[in-house]
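User: Structure tokens for this complex, please. No commentary.
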Amino acid sequence: MPKIVLTDVTKRWGDFYAVDHLNLVIDDQSFVTLLGPSGCGKTTTLRMIAGLETPTSGRIEIGDQVVFDSEKGINIPANKRHVGFLFQNYALWPNMTVYQNISFGLKNSKKYTKEQIDEIVQRVSHIVKIEMFMDRYPSELSGGQQQRVAIARTLAPQPQVIFMDEPLSNLDAKLRLEMRAELQRLHLDTGCTFVYVTHDQMEAMTLATRICLIDNGVLQQYDAPLDVYNRPNNLFVADFVGSPSINFVDAHGTQVEDGSMDFGVFGGLKAKFKFANKTDVKKFREEESALMNAKAEEAEEASKDKKHVEKKNKDAKFNYHIARVDEDKDLSPEATLDDYVLGIRPETIKVVSKGGIEAEVYSAMPTGMETTLRLRIGNFILTGVVFGGITYKIGQTVNIKFEGNGISLFSRESGRIIDTGALEV
Amino acid sequence: MEMTEERPISRWALFWAKTKTFFSKPQNVILVVMGIVCTFTTFAPIIAILNDTVQVHAGTIDQYLSGKAEGFTLVNYKDLFTSRLAKTNLWIPLLNTVLVSVLSCVFAILYGGIFAFLVTRTNLKCKKYLSSIFIFPYIMPQWTLATVWSNLFDSVAVTGTKNGLLAGFFGITMPSWWCQGLFPSFIVLGLHYAPFAYILIGGIFRNMDANLEEAATILDTPKWKIMTHVTLPLVRPAILSTILLVFGSSMGSYPVPHFLRLTTLSTKYLEMNANYAGEASILAVIMMLLGVLIMYFNQRSLKSRKSYTTVTGKSGQTSVINLGKAGKYIIGIVFIILTFFTSIYPIISFAFETFLPNPGDYSFLRTWDFKDLTAKWWITSENVTENGMYGQKGMLFNSTIWKGFGGTMLVSVACALTAGTLGTLIGYAVSKNRRSRLAGYVNSVAFLPYLMPSIAVGIAYFVLFSNKYFNLYNTYFLIILVGTVKYIPFASRSSLNSMLQLSGEIEEAAVIQDIPWHKRMTKIIVPIQKSSIISGYLLPFMTCLRELSLFMLLCVQGFILSTTLDYFDEMGLYAFSSGINLILIVTILICNGLINKITGASLDKGIGG
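Assistant:
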């Protein structure tokens, strides 16, 4: 059954790297989303797997068939890869009716008789509920109906793998929610492998069995949605996933004997960070520098190769954002090995009656179900989410605590995660 | 994994595999084939004509000057540029050519541009009628307006030819500069190409996002400032395309300066061709250089053009300028009168001329007696030498004319089919490979003949195919070949423009479902692009019907209709040349109307692309 394996796949246009040495294994029957900011290479990745784009180098397998291998010169064209593709703009053929759109691909393979084609069209159009539109032309349908026709057309030849390129981005918010649920159900009903491109992290979180987060053509994290959320690999992932965004807090300190970290945070407050697992920061630092050295060596090695093209769109260190009242002043000093960044999810911030630290309510936005609070501690601002309809006054002082083991600790040097743990201030 | 023992394959096998993948895509096959073909059809004639400039032609002036019977010599260049005749043979025609081309451009852009503005942006009356009648001069043969001009203004006293309508009927004689030479030439060429300016500039006016102007209005910008700072810059690309087109075409035009007696490079070429073959070829090279120069300038402005193409599909209602209660009628009437003279009068005039007993005998207009008209030019069915028929049968029975008509139809249909098909394929293949260098090359090399003056292309093919190795002179094959090469740009441009608007996903959706290429083309691409593809066939067909400059050197005079016309005109059978004009115009109008009715495509859509 189709398992998709990408090995060292690179696509570049001149010295612009759209996809940079990507390795990825997509399991059979999974629902994988390729997530990332616009222009990060996710659509290119999808199109390369489908065969609509030719990689510069690398190797792609679908099932047990090698569909692309730059070293062996294998490149099976898109039409022989037997995959389905759902386009962002649906790409319905405007000169054909809905029925013709769905049946056109089937009529070309000699496998089916006319009755069988009828039956298939019936079946797939029933799945997406468009039986009543068979004689209409695409221009006579609404956006959501066109979308369904496109899905039916993709399903008709019964592909084992279906690729979707931001299929919901042209729909209005309400319809998008509806279609999202239907896609999830469709995934179960068909048992196909779905590969889904989106820049909407909510879509990725809610639909996928695994998220593949890409930035600047480089794979950042490939994990189950909740793992990506709870244990982000690096500062970029932590920032990209989650709404409202994660709070970043600069921390300066060292590991003490009992294994926990003593930090100075918020410009002078003392804090203690207890790792959830046994973690040796010294060991992490060693690994980190080894990794960075290896990367530098690799880059030097590569630059010796005559055919190597320097990446113009260089990978920059992720510039994390610390919310402050006086935004314009840049306070962050040079990073030392004693500098860390704490990642605090908004929902871990709890308002307590006493204890913890004092904070001033900077703004409060109740929606009924929850209230998004912006809390001021000295010059710094934290965003928290409190459930229930509590009204806060702006300027009011509250006591807050950080709850649970889900606070992430990142190295400032490399931006990588060290571990998660609990924070006491 | 069991893959451990895989070995890297040999370089040749890799190359072979890659080549096979490359050619498995039909668009790549088209690009490679058309690349090779177009390279030959475009560059071979240029090389041939360059070679001709340094070759000694037996029996011509260069043999005498160089003292050699064969071989190579630079004496042609020396003689043309430095001899006593340099002024008459080179500099004056060159100056005239540049002047007439520049002035035609200016006139066409002003006339067509103002008309475009009035039709798209004001509340002018009779827009629909005016906009369809306005493009007539382009549909009609180039020389139509030139002959109309002569028929109107010539007089025995000034031009020494027959009396035109004005002199014969009203007794008014116009001064010589008005009747012949530079002034009428650029007016006529300008009128002929003004429809281009109208269609290109009007297209932008029509599609321009009204928000752009509204944004300026909200900022309280005065109307004239919006015009000069927002609207005109947006129209700039269209103006540049018009310049490119009009300059190149009027430079290479033969019939207009020929009829209006202006010496340009093209008329000089024909004059010199017999005895000064080598020097004439240098004139052709100069024309080509001018064409390439114009293309270079256009290409340069095309690069900065990117930032100008703000034409969006979401054009709301464009703001309509009010011409005033009387203004909208007055300006409308002015244009109705103007277009009557450029579009309808020629047809009436040609028809009328064919019933005059003698050229310039307008006595009918004084007497309104039908005895003063004759149908002899049409219906004489036997050889008679009296009546001024020079032994020709009447037009309805004249085998020369109908043979020419048949030839023209054959050539036009064949050119339209080949140029239309090849051009569409090129447009398709280029749009599929936007980024590739090969596509860029094929696109520009196929476009190059468009910029070479017709007469120069004709000359080049004459030199190439009418020599001691090949002799294809006076064959349909040669004429169709030249026509195809020259008209591919029409089709490739209109197809490329529309293919670029077609999202690649439309075809990819079919590729994914394993639908073979021929089916994708016939069932998806062609039906969607129907109207622009038909335009791609229509343009070459129409242009070919009335082409003279391109073909006149490649066949004898009775071979196709336009050269037959030239023949009768020189013979002094003006009724015949008017009659042939009429036949051509009516044929073109019928074809245009039919195709428009049947398919919904029309000439103006293709040019505007």
